[in-house]
Amino acid sequence: MVTLDRRQLLKAVGAGALLSAMGSRLVGSDAAARTDGQTPRLQWVPVGNAPIARIASGNEHEAELLHPTLLPLRSLTGWAGAPKWMLWAWHHDTNPTNPHFHAWTSDDVEGGAFAAAPPIPRPAGDYVAAPGVNRVYSYGHFSSGDIVWDPVGGRLVSTPHSVATSRPASLAETPQDSFMMESRDGLTWSWLDGSPVARLSCGTVSDLDSNHTGYGRLLRDLDGQAQTLGGRYWWIYRGGHHLTSSQVSYCTPLLASASSIGGPWTKVGKAFDTAYQNATLLGFDSFLLTAGTPGVFYSTATPAFAPIVTSYAQSSTAGAMAFPDPGVPLALASQPRVEAPNVPGQVFAAGTNVVRDPATHQQYLVQVVNNARYSADTTVTPPTATPHVTSSDIWLFKAVVA
């Protein structure tokens, strides 16, 4: 079997990227929240009829955005001069000379388009492998970190990943490890505690994370503040691995924990099984602690290229990481192609993020959608039409129940 990459998956997914759904809350969601009684909402409606942020480019790598984060920055930081809201999104592929991600700001979350900030470069200096790991990383691969507020350190913390420059003979895929960085204002970033060392490194060939530890999220509350459970910080991440009988890369939700947010991080094992026993695409959107109970918004797809599904899974036990099942799928209204709505093409979901306004307790969800056009792919036999991302839009939703 051939490896199924993201581009092939997008081609197969098509416009039916998001599934049907259910009610606005999970059973038991009326239990008291950790601080004020509110729990994650699961039913959403669009805010406005246009995206709040977008990028269009003739460079497909620049045009493609992934994994947004929206935070009430002024409330979290307490800085009167900070924008009330800051939005971030990442690129997927390596940029060999100028790796970066993007930010937008607004003082009114429902006031229409956010203002774009200059692209944010990755911190200076080379990535460094963890002790005992013989690995060199691609300077330009810098992607898809979570962003949370660390109230203990008074800083934002993010978890981007990078890819090694070579593949060990024992692995079927080049390993990708995760790092941590920090910021006081959301626009200028440095390595966390001055250290560019990998915080989550891939395991051995027999481990569920033998080739990937990325696309993870740190446990936080609805307002975006990092939280502990059982006195420890928690990190849910994609464990990428290959089955011995196949070259297909599979993904499993895995957990790590630490006594401090910077680590060292200890791998805990599998969080839960997704709806598909072996997913070929897996990314995490928001890892939340409410009612003393962890829950996670995540997106996944199948080896057979079924549609990308955005779901919410919740622990069955307060105070514990005990996910009994893959959770329930969300229904998000399909968004139009903004760049050229009447031109044949497709829209692909590329990650969501859930947060609330601390003042009103209204919950919001942001979602990236990639606009793509088809072009002939002559690298395969027989030739086929392949979608190429031409722009990305970030849409805002609000919970039906405030």
Give a concise summary.
By secondary structure, this protein is mainly beta.
How would you portray this structure in words?
This protein has three helices and 25 strands. Residues 1-34 have low confidence and may be disordered. It has helices spanning 6-13, 60-63, 73-77; strands at residues 44-46, 53-56, 66-71, 85-90, 100-106, 115-116, 120-121, 147-150, 155-158, 161-163, 176-178, 181-183, 189-191, 217-218, 228-229, 232-242, 249-258, 266-270, 281-290, 293-301, 309-314, 328-329, 346-356, 363-377, 384-399. The protein starts with 5 loop residues before the first helix and ends with a strand. The strands form six sheets. Strands 1, 2, 23, 24 and 25 form a five-stranded antiparallel sheet that branches. Strands 3, 4, 5, 6 and 7 form a five-stranded antiparallel sheet that branches. It is 4% helix and 37% strand. With 402 residues, it is mainly beta. The chain is globular, with a radius of gyration of 20 Å. A hairpin with a 4-residue loop joins strand 8 and strand 9 (155-158).
Short key terms for the protein model shown above:
single chain; 402 residues; mainly beta; five-stranded antiparallel β-sheet; 3 helices; globular; disordered N terminus
